Structures are given as structure tokens and as C-alpha cells.
């Protein structure tokens, strides 16, 4: 498993269009975060990641703290539990900034593990979310 972690490159989502693309995919909701994931736009052998926090989370200081914590959790867990060729977006929630670190890591890990089987299934992953080719 360590060899896979060394090979998995992590890129970044940088423009709004990429975030909107991922939002149409799968998602896993946890008390401290929402993890959205979608295959199809990311280069193979790489995962790309983005982070967001709305004003509902809190002021700028709280939002930045929440995103920093999510970045660190993703840095630690994506190489181990991420699916190559997938874009991920981590959405902060109100509990993200104050949640105990071990519980935050467990939330992120369980969300990644929940999403992995559907993402590895390929095209059928998008059908499970209701965003298949026929729009249903």
C-alpha cells in the first residue's frame, strides 16, 4: 500500500467550473465535512482536490481554520484512500474548525472509503447519483 501512496500525485482544483463539475458527482456527508467526488475530468494516476467553506461556517478566521484542517486531513488520507483519476472537493461544515482532530480524520477517512467503491466502478458511479447520460 505504501508504494501506491508514493505514485499517487495530488493536484488542485483552481477554477469554479471544476468545483461545479465535481458537485454533480457523488457525495458523502459527515458531521464535520461533506466530501464530493467525481471521475472523468482528472488525469489518470492523479487525484485533484479543492476546499471550500461558506459564510455559514463562520467569519473569515473560522473558515480559514476549517479549510486548513481539511487540507491537512486530505494530505494525510487521500494518498491512502483516494481513487486515482478522481476529483475531490471537501466542503467545511460548522463543526469542522472545532471538531477533535481524531474525529475529523475519522470523518474524512470514512467518507473517502464510502465513495471509493462507486468511483472504482467507473461510469456506473455517475448513474448512482442521478446524473447519468439520460439526466435522471
Strands, helices and their partners?
Blueprint: H1 2-7, E1 9-12, H2 16-23, E2 26-29, E3 33-39, E4 46-52, H3 60-81, E5 86-92, H4 101-120, H5 124-128
Parallel strand pairs: 1-4, 4-5
Antiparallel strand pairs: 2-3, 3-5
List keywords for this structure.
alpha/beta, 5 helices, 5-stranded mixed sheet
Question: Mean pLDDT, as a whole number?
Answer: 85
Q: Roughly how many Å is the radius of gyration? A: 14 Å
- Give me the count of strands: 5
SSE class: alpha/beta
Strand content: 15-25%
Separate helix tally = 5
Order of the strands making up the biggest sheet: 1-4-5-3-2
H and E order: HEHEEEHEHH
User: Spans of 5+ residues with little confidence (pLDDT < 50)?
Assistant: 1-5, 123-136
How does the overall form come out from the CA principal axes?
A: globular
Name the helicity range: 40-55%
Largest sheet descriptor: 5 strands, mixed
Q: First CA to last CA: what distance?
A: 37 Å
Quick take:
The chain has 136 residues and is of the alpha/beta class. Helices cover 45% and strands 21% of the residues. The chain has helices spanning 2-7, 16-23, 60-81, 101-120, 124-128, and strands spanning 9-12, 26-29, 33-39, 46-52, 86-92.
Describe the structure.
This protein is of the alpha/beta class and 136 residues long. Helices cover 45% and strands 21% of the residues. The protein has five helices and five strands; from the N terminus they run αβαβββαβαα. Helix 3 links the parallel strand 4 and strand 5 (86-92). The termini are far apart. The model is unreliable at 1-5 and 123-136 (pLDDT under 50).
Amino acid at each position: 500500500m505504501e508504494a501506491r501512496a508514493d505514485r499517487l500525485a495530488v493536484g488542485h482544483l483552481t477554477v469554479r467550473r471544476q468545483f461545479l463539475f465535481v458537485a454533480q458527482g457523488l457525495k458523502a456527508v459527515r458531521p464535520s465535512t461533506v466530501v464530493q467526488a467525481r471521475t472523468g475530468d482528472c488525469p489518470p494516476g492523479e487525484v485533484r482536490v479543492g476546499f471550500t467553506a461558506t459564510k455559514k461556517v463562520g467569519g473569515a478566521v473560522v473558515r480559514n481554520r476549517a479549510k486548513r484542517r481539511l487540507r491537512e486531513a486530505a494530505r494525510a488520507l487521500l494518498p491512502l484512500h483516494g481513487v486515482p483519476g478522481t476529483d475531490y472537493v471537501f466542503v467545511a461544515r460548522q463543526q469542522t474548525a472545532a471538531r477533535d482532530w481524531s474525529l475529523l480524520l475519522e470523518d474524512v477517512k470514512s467518507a473517502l472509503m464510502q465513495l471509493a467503491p462507486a468511483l472504482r466502478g467507473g461510469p456506473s458511479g455517475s448513474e448512482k447519483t442521478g446524473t447519468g447520460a439520460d439526466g435522471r
